Amino acid sequence: MICLCVLLSCFGQTVNQRGHWEGNEVVIAVKHFNPMMDLNYSVPIGFDADWIHALLRESGNVEPIRWKRCNTVAEALKAVETGEAHLAISGITITPKREKQVDFSHQYMRSGLLIAVPDKRSTMPLMEVILDPEIWHSLVLLFILYAVIGTAFLLVESRSETRTVRTLRDAVSLAHETTSTIGHGAIYPTTWPGLILSIVAFFVGVIVVGNVVSTMSSIRTVEHIDSTINSPEDLRGKKVATMRGTNSVDVLKDDYGSRVEECDSMQSCFDMLDSGKVDAVCHDAPAIRSYLKSPIKTEHDRKFATVGSLFDVCYYGIAFQEGSEFVEMFNRSILGLQHKTGPGSYNDIHRKWLGE
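^ that's the sequence the OP posted. Answer follows.
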């Protein structure tokens, strides 16, 4: 009996019949991963900070939290594995390799990798604008409009003795002047049907001619990101910065053959990109988007843009010591909050930190 008591006291905290923590505090291993977990404050903030509070409330736990700050995901998982922490959370990707080390809760967020490159933009050369198929489509539509309205003018004006529209050339010229809102010159309608037709042609011209002009203007002024990297396949052999000790390191090296530079912060990743030491930054989508949306500090801070779409889709989960009795309790809370609405629900926290 004495040995049993000693064993329980060494374990520190166990689960009572209701699934609550017994002891003075819940120890949670975390690492900085904005916007999931921001450790730049005395008390961590972010999606996962709010999420873990909501999960503990959902399961009926009121014990205080002690945050164990770690430098890498590997360090946080090690703390859980050795019993220094009860659980770990900070946008931790569930992988087969990690599942051999710890137990994971149900996944609670779908994520993946995004690529960021220098935001070098250029306008399309004039010759490319002229040869653009969209321009030719608009011009053909305009010429068809001239022919149809011109033919109509020729027909309705044919019986007027004072008509100025005598040939098809005159009719097309009048159609052009009317639809392009230039106004009438020596050629003009002399009948009521011709006058009504010119009014209709004027308003049709405002729409069609305006569309042609705006199409040419938008194609000419549209900006394109000039980059040799536009998809994950383009990362092969390239220097890519990402966060140290994260799943993205293995993915970039093993799956895409990138030369990876591991950094301790997103700021360091983008500093390397800004200085030309790497060709791209690649990391989890929430971190990339959060950095690019953060408040501008100087005129030089935001010279980057994402290219391609989300790839290497993954899922985040909460890590527990193998065999932990808390996994099932948290799984019930995760499913409960994902199906709830209103303050404190999964969707409410998601909108607050990720805006989606």
